[in-house]
Structure formats: structure tokens, C-alpha cells
Amino acid sequence: MATKLPKVPVVIAGMGWSGGIIAAELTKAGIKVVGLERGKGRSTADYYMAHDELRYAQRNEMMQDLSKETITFRHNTKERSLPMRTYGSFLLGDGLGGSGSHWNGQTYRFLPYDFEIKSKTIERYGAKKIPEGMTLQDWGITYDELEPYFDKFEKMAGIAGDQEQNPMVGKRSNPFPLPPMKKTPIMKMFEEAAKKLGYHPYTIPSANLTDIYKNPDGIERAACQYCAFCERFGCEYGAKADPVVTVIPVAQNTGNLEVRTYSNVTRIIHDGKKASGVVYVNTLTGEEFEQPADVVILASYVFNNVRILLNSKLGKPYDPVAGTGVIGRNYAYQVQAGKAIGFYDDKEFNTFMGAGALGTIFDDFNGDNFDHSDLNFLHGGGIRVAQTGARPIASNSVPKGTKSWGKEFKSTSIKYANSVITVSTQGANLPYKHHFLDLDPVYKDAYGMPLLRITYDFEDQDRELTKFLAEKAGEVLKEMGPSKMQVSGELGPYDITPYQSTHNTGGVVMGTDPSISAVNRYSQMWDAENVFVVGASSFTHNSGYNPTGTVGALSYLAAEGILKYLQKGGSLV
């Protein structure tokens, strides 16, 4: 029997970027908020001198315990789903700050094309260009409408970037708060080669500060030291934008936020029209609590947002056969298989140094920036070189044909340890009717709740996109003059075993039509007006970019909507 607690105005499940941003905006307006985080608390002090690749990068110190809660996976409905018991394709963060504490810091805005992808595709190519089974849909909001919220996120986080407007992306109302990161020799080589081929390279926008910075909320942070311990690590300097060092302290300083760690939300209490609160479990004691609230906000990771709704029986579950229902619809991942690797016998680049967002990219083949008329795919991706830091355990790039063990492998690994350049690609992933999320009928978590099941595989769309981008990456690398090079553009079936990216999206998608979307532009549920579901679960597809900048913008817009709802109630659109 759950212990019922006193009612609060707002309860938030998940205290990462979305939860932290919303908590900051609501508490500054005088609203009392309870933030529930299933993991432990964190502070910058936890990461002092914690450059331990084995502990954090290999043993996943900051990630969810898969023995207690995981996902199950299958390629299609004919396969048996099985639990993911060891980390591979993606990493599920755990603890205060969530994935916002262990990310790399690459911060992009989705393209104007992304938000109106179906309309703009049909307008340019006709409806027949969209393959059968692809459930492409507009977001119900335009880039121009979301631009002020991108700007607000970037100012809060202190995003560093090139001040000249890049013609390949959406227009900006203001320059980046800080100048770009330093250009390494690798970045300069890539930039020169790309420009020689007629492309438009620019420095990757970075949440790793390039100078001391004080944001509009008065939070001051130090500059990046280029230590190369970003992805899978917390930042010991506070230089990497993280909810724990940006928005959460702002909310706590108002006196209006109570954060409860080790508090795992399992379901929403509702009557089919409105929610009255949530139920959560104290993960240390096993005690169950009911937290009544006027407004319930799901701001957890994609999978958890969907799982809580399905376990709560809130919103109509998606049916892939009929194509009806919305919770679990339009799951998408990211396509990152295409790349070109160059080995240099006469150059060294100090690749052990770097930062999570240190790199250069161009978007000439991203979105609809190029003509797809004679191509067998839609959208595209970025082509980039990044110097995130080649840590010793996981960095063993060797040319094809080298033995994968023994003396030859060791000597070749040492030879090329600082003499390898990878030109990588990151492509969009578009939704299909048969890619979805639902509850597994067999497997349960430590609390007896069904696990979330992923049904997903790569399509011909993804294979054609990968091949195309890999060829372009190879052309750029060739201009960079490696001693030997190899291009990888083949994409097989989706394999959940090797790490690819943590860029999962969809399942509670945004739109204007309740029959194909779960939330409106303010992330307010159509089926429960006082429930807001915020994060990458809102994306109707995944772009060729990392998702965090767009998550941040949508979170600020959601916060604005929640404040309006608290004042007036009812549907916001």
C-alpha cells in the first residue's frame, strides 16, 4: 500500500535537461515543484580527478543498472524479444542530470526542413517520394516559431560556435554566446579539404565553454580544459553544460524545488481525463509513495516516458497493424555506419587530447539541402571530423588486414595511435509503421512492472543514405592526403551489441492531429490536459543532428505552456 503524501502544485519525473529546465522556469515564477529522480544525487565534486576510463567508459559508472531495469529488443514482430543485459548500442543514464551529465556537448538546432518534413517533401518531390510504410509527419511547429527557445537554451548553456551565419542551417536571431572551440590541425585539414570541394564547413557548436561565462540566470562556469573526458564522464571543471551545474541550482536557489533522489516513478494516477499524481518507489528501501499533484510532468528519457504512460494506461497504445494509437508510435534511432578512416605514416596529431564537442562539420548533404530527385532516400546527415580524445583502452584503430590480436596488432595500434583521422557521418532516421515501442508481455523489472520493448531494424532508406554519405566522406578524406584509407558504407541489419549513439527518439510524438500525435506543441497530452511529456520522445523522426539542442528548446517552450496552464487551465491550443 502506497503512502500518500501531501499534494503539491507540480511533480516532475526525471531531473535531466527537460526536468531541470522546467523546474528552473517554474520555480523562478514562484511555483512549488517536487522533482523525482530515480538515481543518486550528483555534484561537480564527484568528478574531481575522475579520469578513469575503465570505471566510467568501460564499466558505465553513470549508467542505469540493467539487472534491475532494461529494455527488450527484436527486429520485427516475428522475432522473440530478449532483454538487453549488457550495454551496447546506446547508454541509459542514471542519477541527477541524467544523460545531460555524461553527454559530449555537441549542440545543434534541427533544420527548418525537419519540423515540416512531410509538407516540404511533398511540396518539392510529390507524395510518391515518401516510401510505403514510412509514417512521416510534421511536428505542428515551425523552426521560426521555435527559434527563440533555441536561443534561450544556448544562452543558458553557454554554447560556443562560429559567429558567421552558416547558409546551410536555420537563421539565428542572435550570435552564439561564446566564440568557437580551438581549431586543431585535424580540423584545419578537414576544413580546407571540404572548402576545396565546394562545401560549407563550420566548427561544431559546443556546450563545452570556450571562456569563463556567466549566463542570464547568474550561473558562472569555467572554460574547457580539453581533457578529452566528456562522453560517459561528468565534467570536473563544470565547463560542460550539465543540468547539475546550470538549471537545477537555479531552481534550488529559489527555495521552491525539492529534489528527491532514489525515487523511481512507476505510474501516473488518473481518471482517464486528468491526472491526480504519480506513484514512485524508493529504490533504496522498496517503499512505495503516492505523490498527488495538480500538474504531472514526464521529463525522463525516451524509453521511460513511453513506459510510464503504457504502464499507467494513459493514452492509446500504438497498434502497428491497424496504424492506430499514439503511445509508442514513430520510434526512431540514428544512422552512423558510414565513415572514412585515414592512416598517416608521416604525421601525428595528439588525438589523445580533445573535447566532446571539438570538431568541424558541414551540412551540404543534411536535410533537404541537396536535390533528392534521383536518390533512393530522403533527408541526409552531417559529415564531420571530431577530436573527442582517443583514450587508450578503446582506441585501437588499425588498417584492414591487420590481425586483431597479438604482436602485429599491438605494434600497429601503437604506430597509428596518434596518426588516424576518421571522417564520420551521422544520418537522419525516419519513422516506419513497423518501428514502435510497447510493453514486453514476458519480461519485468525489479518491481514487477513490464519492460519496454523495441521493435526496430534498419531499412533500405538507411542503407542508401549510409552509402551516399560514406562516399562523400571518402572524397573529403582523400583530399586530406592519408597514406592509406578505407571507406565503410555498408549497413547490415541493426545490431544492438556495439555502441552507436544514445539518440533514441519518438514514442510520444508532437503534432496537431490527436489521431497521430500524443502531445501538442507545448508537450501537453491530448488525452490528459494536466500531463506534459517532454523530451526527445516528442520527435516525429530523428534528424541528422544530435538531439539535445532541440530537446532544450522544446523544454523551454513546454515550461512556458505549463505556466499558462497553471494560470488558466484547459488545452493550450
Automatic annotation (TrEMBL):
Coiled coil: none annotated. Residues 438-554 form the Glucose-methanol-choline oxidoreductase C-terminal domain. GO terms for molecular function: flavin adenine dinucleotide binding; gluconate 2-dehydrogenase (acceptor) activity. Its EC number is 1.1.99.3. It comes from Brevibacillus fulvus. InterPro entries: FAD/NAD-bd_sf, GMC_OxRdtase_N, GMC_OxRtase_C. Residues 142-331 form the Glucose-methanol-choline oxidoreductase N-terminal domain. Belongs to the GMC oxidoreductase family. Keywords: FAD, Flavoprotein, Oxidoreductase. It is an enzyme of class 1 (oxidoreductase). The keyword Flavoprotein applies. Pfam families: GMC_oxred_C, GMC_oxred_N. This is Gluconate 2-dehydrogenase alpha chain.
